[in-house]
Amino acid sequence: MLTRLREIVEKVASAPRLNEALDILVTDVCQAMETEVCSVYLADNDRRCYYLMATRGLKKPRGRTVALAFDEGLVGLVGRLAEPINLADAQKHPSFKYIPAVKEDRFRAFLGVPIIQRRQLLGVLVVQ
């Protein structure tokens, strides 16, 4: 698994643009973890919210921005705690927030991991 992680990091680092790097990340994490969904929410500190920037497995609505305030949902909780959260049934957690636009209601399990660089939270990686 460490070898696979290293390969993913190298591919992401060599991507010419951020959106390509994020697409590589979500696709390769899904494959490596044999899961249906991987998404990246990036933090916007000025607007105090996370934007869904890349996903594999969720519906990303065209022409609409999917955003969660820093204090909303499990993504917000991962960001506030700055530590991973692993849940077998995310919908039972009090911080769960359903987002109809992404059609995530059929996925129960949730693994959220903060993306941190130099002690600054950049976003949240979610595997479902």
UniProtKB/TrEMBL annotation:
Residues 18-127 form the GAF domain. GO terms for molecular function: transferase activity. It comes from the Bacteria. Keywords: Pyruvate, Transferase. SUPFAM superfamilies: GAF domain-like (SSF55781). The keyword Transferase applies. The keyword Thylakoid does not apply. This is Phosphoenolpyruvate-protein phosphotransferase PtsP. It comes from Klebsiella variicola. The lineage of its organism: Bacteria, Pseudomonadati, Pseudomonadota, Gammaproteobacteria, Enterobacterales.
